[in-house]
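Methods: example folding runs. The two proteins below were folded one after another, and each record is reproduced exactly as written to the output file, sequence line first and structure-token line second.
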Amino acid sequence: MKKLLILSGKGGTGKTTVAAAFIDFLNAEAFADCDVDAPNLHLVAGMHTQPERWDYYGSQKASIDPAKCIGCGVCLEKCRFDAISLRGGVCEVNEYACEGCGVCWYVCPQSAVTMNEDIAGEQMLYRDGRVFSTAKLKMGRGNSGKLVTEVKKALYNAAPEKKLAIIDGSPGVGCPVIASVSGVDLVLIVADPSLSGIHDMERILKTTGILRAKAAVCVNKYDTCTENTEAIEEYCRENNVPFAGRIPFDKQASAAINAGHSLAAVDCPARDALKNVFKDVMTLLGESDRAEN
């Protein structure tokens, strides 16, 4: 299975809009949303079946038995994350601050602390002839990179016979992005023509370079600042990064997403530009025949 990952250095560039359109252009039979902190591809993915759901267990969390705790405060003193407080003569753990390090368990003289597996999120797998893998991390939980890996693993295990998968990644350059990039064949970076957009595009290109992943760039809403769009193209030329094209600002893009379908279903300039970007990306993947379907 070939994997195309769509990323952006910052939020709000139109990454998911591009991913949703590519899924429809390709009639993709395997795709995933690896933005586990704020997944939204399911809103426009067109999956009409109920997903399989299961809990995702992250790191452990501490809990204190009030019947055993004598309120000595040793655990409170040793906790470097300030996750423990003393109330009513006994210690309590704040689950959102606890990092599961186990120091409180180690130092408690009354053996009042236990370390328990923590449900850190939920995974979902949709099947209707197509396969769509996604997940949602609970508020305040870490391990987003590990959950991204589980989302990808669920997709590959459920659709081993599929030839090409589209993966919608998360913004930024952190753990979930690094986990998303691992093992993919091409990363398409969606940039916007702003100073912050250029800066964050450069950061994500450096990240993919360190991970030795092949990357290409396209610019969304290019006509909001053509000067910066030209600067992005020049940067790509100077650094031998394939440039996949420009997509104009189009109010119909927001209308399509709000209506629950991708831009591929709308006859508009942005759709036509996206189609050209799609063809270039399929060529880079060695799948140019798919772009003509």
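Second run, written to the same file directly after the first:
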Amino acid sequence: MLGDKIHLKVQGGRGGKGCESYNHRKDHKKVPNGADGGEGGSVIFRASHHAPGLDRLRLKQHLEAESGEHGGSDNKRGSQGEDLIVLVPIGTSIFRRENHRGIRDLYLEGEEVIVARGGRGGSGNIGDKMATSGEEGEKIEIDVEFRIMADVFLVGLPGSGKSSLLRRLTRAPIEGKDYPFATRTPVLGVYAYDDYKQINFCELPSIFEGSTDGRGWGTDFLRHLARAKLIVFMIDATIKFVSNAVDGLATLQRIVYAHDDTFRQIPSVVVVNKIDLGLDTGKIEKELQSSGQSYFLISVKTGEGVESLMQFIQERIEREGRV
């Protein structure tokens, strides 16, 4: 559900038809008294904490608001069509399908946008006007994407210990599966500190050299990084899927930045996990120093280095004003 991306056809309601009607007076004169038709309803997307996932919209991919009522005689104006309010999760983005230009990002509770406006109602013949039909509502095809809103995203090689770190920091209810590709969908957790402050973490499924070819769980979930304040690139100190630490970092960055080059602007840090296994950490440090990238060597199992890492993350996120 977290990775929903759907295509919808959306249409505002048609305006009601204007009425052509006359009042036949006793002096045999006809007085036009047809009223205007009501405006069609609009299709409005609204962000809500209580919204279900986008997946339920797949069941009805054509959304249309209510049409306005036709005008009546004796100047009885037609009622306006009811707006169609579509509740979506906070963090939903809406794009025009034809060119993928953004319509609106819905970040806040209750934030909304009119996606397709209703048509104007037709004119009645009152006042000697010509009666007209109502206008059709606006039609548009859109892509709707949900992007996770989190501060820190864990991006790593298979078996690097992302789930273990998230579980240790946030007590997220993650099943302890110590094998590569255990995480199939993004997982969220909240790190709380100083009584009231908190940092939102998200662990993404593992990526490696074959991910761009669709192996593992692919790379489509990387779009969630658009909202990241910090990317944590995680590597296993045993170097199972790459030749060395720098190669591992290069692999992760190459895949992430190939997905969206703007992700280069997101601050990042490298974390090498499992240093408790008695490996040559000096060699790993020397390799990473040549990369010029900030890094931490940790052991999620023993806790070594985790406190220093979290101090770095806290300071970084607090500077962004997101706690």
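Comment on the second run: The CA atoms of residues 22 and 32 lie 4 Å apart.
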